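Subject: sequence -> structure tokens, single chain

Hey, anyone have a minute? Need the predicted structure for the following. Not urgent.
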Amino acid sequence: MRYSKDEMKRFFLCMAIFTLLVSCAKKNEPARAEYVLGTLCTVNLFEDGTDTLYDALFSRLRQLDDNFSTTNPKSFVSAVNAAAGKHPVFVGKDVFTVLKKALEIAELTDGAFDPTIGPLVTLWGINTEHTHVPSQAELSKVLPLIDYKKIILNEHNTTAFLSSENMALDLGGIAKGYAADELVKILRSHAVKRAIIDLGGNVYVFGKKIDGKPWNVGIKNPEAPSGEPLLALRIPENSVVTSGVYERFFEQNGIRYHHILSGKTGFPVQNGLRSVTVISASSMTADALSTGCFVLGKEKGLALAEWLGVDAIFIDDSITMTQELMKSF
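Reply:
Had a minute. Here:
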């Protein structure tokens, strides 16, 4: 994962705020936060929180970070990228599982979500020390490398292969969702009654609130993400994942460039949308679909969400929801 100076500043600020909140919290609602997976990850286990269980949860997150990192040369993802066009690489169960789901979502979205977007992400360098607006010549070199159909998986050997040289995986749009699902597995195995997982905005509300009422999850206002939520969802156990233009961006010559990139044009997607939220029992699915539906645009993204039977919220100049979700408002 790449950590910029601005990210580190935000991390230490968030940690200070989080420490204050925890110090003021009731003793029966312990929580823990760590910087992992390139973001601030917090878990609140309420009355079931123990140091041993928190240790297990964050150890699993660090293990996944080691597996999916694009900057750690020893990670499985880095090994696949280094061997692009040369030979298959053993990737282990975690990366293989995520790649299978990534290819499924890529197919469903006709490449709007594409796990081979790595060369384009590197070229833009958003949230790194090398941020810049690429020239058309630079884009022309990397766009032909973005093609999820050139990922070859071998389930028997648990290997992955990028069939063309200089291709590169970037699973940042799905790995946090998988990580949230993995934490939920641990919670179930320990009979945890209730928990809130927040992996940098990938939220999973687990179990039931102590009063039995639905969980309250706020959806940020893209125009003022640090202010009051634009919407308040009341939902049972579920994952809520948002992709928005306000999450990671930079400005140059008065123009804001956000991190949701089109594998077809090479530029940040400009379709009027400011955020897309997907609600699903599978955080991995919600993670990838929130990006895929954003890139597809409101009309196609909404149609896909309805067809898949997942709840989604599209925010542009208005708020549009899937039909089933509208019934709860």
